[in-house]
Amino acid sequence: MAGSLSDYLENALMLHLTEGAAYAQPAHLYLALFTVAPNDTGGGTEVPNSNGYVRQIVDAWTVSGSNPTQAQNTSLITFPAASPAGWGTILGWGLFDSLASGSGHLLWWGDGLNQAIGINGVAEFLPNAITLTLD
Fold first, then answer.
1. Dihedral sign computed on CA atoms, order 74, 109, 68, 30
2. Which domain holds residue 20?
3. Quick one: which of 13, 71, 76, 79 could link to 132 by a disulfide (CB 3.0–4.6 Å)?
4. pLDDT at residue 109 above 80?
């Protein structure tokens, strides 16, 4: 599942590079799930912060090659079981700089998912399932 940089991160990196506006690396990256996928400007519909849902820390990435343009999640990412109700159909994901749903900045996003999470269902991403690509 490849993704795209958000407008927020593109703008922050451009200002960092061209105007010296400091961009500080977030302390952690947090994976969020969406029932309506986000896009470069944000948007989408994140799973509500209920029924066991909470963004997951994703700090382990593998960057490949001597000219790195891709990174992939290194470890298994497992969300808590959906309970007492399901979360609906997950259609996209987003990486944020904040744990709290509805806060922080969307940094990277992806779509192309179609995973129904019913009662007691668990969303998981195997190692190398999420790919961040620069082109």
1. negative
2. 4-133
3. 71
4. yes
